[in-house]
């Protein structure tokens, strides 16, 4: 079993336990991000159990990790550890991943200059080989797409 939260909280407890709005931690990004991932993957598993399979998979933002996992592009461990780079898909494929395709892969192409990759030590490799390329771990500290 892959642990992503260091046993700091339990998904079912957060979803089922009755709490006041002030007590609930569901708006905490460290809770909601993996919760959304789990729900997206669980819904897909439910559809598959009913013999309903997607003909294509489209994702956006926080859904990229679940989509890459559901599409079979990443295993669970890699899906929860991804890095966004400001490079084209061609640059990533032919430059960055050249020689290390055994340990990294393209997970999501979000735009012509925004590619999400996953793999062991990919951030370290990028920092050494491409120090001037924008890179950021897919780790969100605040609510995403949230307007008050």
TrEMBL record:
<dbReference type="GO" id="GO:0016740">
    <property type="term" value="F:transferase activity"/>
</dbReference>
<dbReference type="InterPro" id="IPR050444">
    <property type="entry name" value="Polyketide_Synthase"/>
</dbReference>
<dbReference type="InterPro" id="IPR014043">
    <property type="entry name" value="Acyl_transferase_dom"/>
</dbReference>
<protein>
    <recommendedName>
        <fullName>Malonyl-CoA:ACP transacylase (MAT) domain-containing protein</fullName>
    </recommendedName>
</protein>
<dbReference type="InterPro" id="IPR016035">
    <property type="entry name" value="Acyl_Trfase/lysoPLipase"/>
</dbReference>
<dbReference type="Pfam" id="PF00698">
    <property type="entry name" value="Acyl_transf_1"/>
</dbReference>
<dbReference type="InterPro" id="IPR001227">
    <property type="entry name" value="Ac_transferase_dom_sf"/>
</dbReference>
<keyword id="KW-0808">Transferase</keyword>
<feature type="domain" description="Malonyl-CoA:ACP transacylase (MAT)">
    <location>
        <begin position="4"/>
        <end position="148"/>
    </location>
</feature>
């Amino acid at each position: 079993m892959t642990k992503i939260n260091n046993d700091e909280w339990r998904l079912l407890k957060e979803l089922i336990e009755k709490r006041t709005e002030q007590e609930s931690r569901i708006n905490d990004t460290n809770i909601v991000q993996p919760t959304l991932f789990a729900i997206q993957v669980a819904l897909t598993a439910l559809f598959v159990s009913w013999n309903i399979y997607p003909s294509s998979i489209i994702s956006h933002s926080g859904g990229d990790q679940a989509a890459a996992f559901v599409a079979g592009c990443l295993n669970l461990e890699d899906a929860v550890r991804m890095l966004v780079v400001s490079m084209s898909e061609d640059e990533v494929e032919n430059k960055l991943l050249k020689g290390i395709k055994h340990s990294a892969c393209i997970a999501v192409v979000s735009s012509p200059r925004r590619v999400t990759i996953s793999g062991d030590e990919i951030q370290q490799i990028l920092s050494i080989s491409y120090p001037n390329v924008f890179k950021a771990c897919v780790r969100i500290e605040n609510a995403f797409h949230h307007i008050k």
